[in-house]
# Entry
Amino acid sequence: MQSRAARIAVYDAGFGGIAWPVEYGGQGLTPAHQEAFSEEVAQYPHLALGDLVSVGICAPTLLDFGTEEQKRRYIPHMLRGDEVWTQLLSEPGAGSDLAGLQTRAVLDGDEWVVNGQKVWTSGAQWSELAVMVARTNPDVPKHAGLSMFVVDLKAPGVTIRPLKQITGNDEFNEVFLDDVRLPADCLVGAKDDGWRALLRMLMHERMAIGAGTGGSRMGRDMFTILRDLARERGVEHDTGVRAALLDVYVKERLLTWLGQRMRDSAATGKEPGPEGSLAKLLNAIVSRASSNAGMLIGGAGAQAWDASARGAGDLAAAFLQSPMTAIAGGTSEIQRNTIGERVLGLPKEPQLDRDVPFRQVLQNPLRASQKG
# Structure
C-alpha cells in the first residue's frame, strides 16, 4: 500500500491532479504538464505517487457518470489521497462474464438494500469507499438490469476478508454485503444503465494499466533494471540472457509508444477505445517476459536465496506475481476477444443467454430463490 502521507504532501505542494478540473480539486493544467511531472517522478522508482484504482479508474468514471454533487464531494479527496477507493465488480460466479453478476440492490423507500459477494477486490482492506455494480432488475436480459453505486466500506453489513496469495501477500479480498443500506443518492448514473458505465470504467482501467493514466509510470523500464542485474551477476554476455533482455526491451518500447499514443488521444478529448485492450494485453506480455528474464539472470539464486542479501526473493516474487497481470482488470483472453471484434472485425463470441431475462438464465441461483 502506497504512503498516503506522501501522496497528500505531493498534492498540497501543487503536484496532485495536475490535469484535472479546478472545480473538482485539480490544478487545471494540461496533460503535457502531467506528462512532464510523471517523467520526472519515474526517475525515483521507490516514490510511488500514483493511485491506479482511485485516480486512474474510479475518479474518471465518476467524472463521466456522477452527479455534480458526487463529483464535488468525492473527486477532490481521491486526488489528494484523503480517501482510497476500490472496485466491487468480480464475483465467484461472474469474473470474465461480469454481466452475469448476482449481487442484488433493491430499492426500499429512499434506500437501496444490497446483498451479495464480491471477490478479487484490490486493496479493499485499506479503502474507505468503492464503486460497485449490482443487479437492480432481474426481469430483463443480464446486460440491461445493472446499476452502479458508491459504497461506504465501513457501513454495517460490509465484511472484508483478505485472500492470501502465492506470493504471501494479501492485497486481494473477498467482500460480503449483507443487507447493506445505501442512500438513494449513491446511485451513479441512471438506474439499470450500469452496463454502459461499467464498460467505460473498464476502458479507464485498461488505460490506467496500459498507459499510466493513474498518474504513475511504475514498472515501465524493467529492461534497465534487468540489464544492470545481468552486469552485476556477470552474465551480460550470455546469449540466452541477451536474447531475453532484447525481448523485454522491444516489448517495453512498444508498450511505451502505445501508451503515449493513448495519452495523446485522451488529451484531445477522444473517448477510450479498443486500444486500451491492446495496452492491457501488452502489459501482461511485458510482465511475463520481464519475470522470466529475471529468473534466467538470477539463476538458482532466484529460487533459493540468502535472506540477508539485498533484494532477496524479489525475482521469485516478481515471477509468482506476473500471472496476475494477465487476469486482473480483464483476462488476456477477454482482451483478445475485444481486439478481434472491435479492431479486426471478427464475429462476436456466441452468447445464448444474452437476450434471456436474467431470472430465467440456466444455473442461475436467482431462478430458485426468486421464482414466480
